[in-house]
Amino acid sequence: MIGSATSRMIALIDRSGFVSGARGRVFENKVGGPLVVARRAGQNFTFAQLLFFFLHPGMIVPESTYWNKAFGRKRGEVLGEQEGLRTVRNFAKKIVWLIKKD
Q1: Whose CB among 10, 69, 88, 100 lies 3.0–4.6 Å from 36's, allowing a Cys bridge?
Q2: pTM exceeds cut of 0.85
Q3: In the predicted model, is pLDDT for residue 81 greater than 90?
Q4: What is the rounded average pLDDT of the residues 91-102?
Q5: Is the pLDDT of residue 1 over 90?
Q6: Three-state DSSP class for 22?
Q7: Closest-CA residue to 72 (of 84, 62, 86)
Q8: CA dihedral (19, 22, 26, 28) positive or negative
Q9: How many CB atoms lie within 10 A of CB 58?
Q10: What pLDDT sits at residue 41?
């Protein structure tokens, strides 16, 4: 679908969801969350798609300073997107902090 997660990503989500369900919610209480890079449109829908994947099996999803997304059209262009990179760094710090809490 245009403006959403790729078909390969959706296939991975669907398959891992079925495996998790069949094996007793193996992702429950694991830490994770979505990270989206987009050219311009579709990032909010894609972020929501991926977020639902993390929430459905009972994963712990930390917040950041904004939604975990950045923009870039060409390979490497996202490295110049300071707000997005700052958000992703904050998200990564929260993930590490949560994992170390146990």
Answers
A1: 69
A2: no
A3: no
A4: 91
A5: no
A6: helix
A7: 84
A8: positive
A9: 12
A10: 79
The C-alpha R_g of the chain, in whole angstroms, comes to 14
Retrieve residue 93's tokens. 């710090």
Cβ-based neighbour number of residue 50 at 10 Å: 21
Give the C-alpha separation, 33 to 94, whole Å.
11
- Supply 55's token pair: 């929430």
Percentage of the chain beyond pLDDT 90 is 55
For the chain, what's the residue count?
A: 102
Q: Are 82 and 51 in contact (CB under 8 A)?
A: no
User: What is the predicted pLDDT for the residue at 47?
Assistant: 92
Contact 65, 86 (CB under 8 A): yes
Please identify which residue in the block is written with the tokens 């902090």. Answer: 97
Helix (H, G, I), strand (E, B) or coil at 24: coil
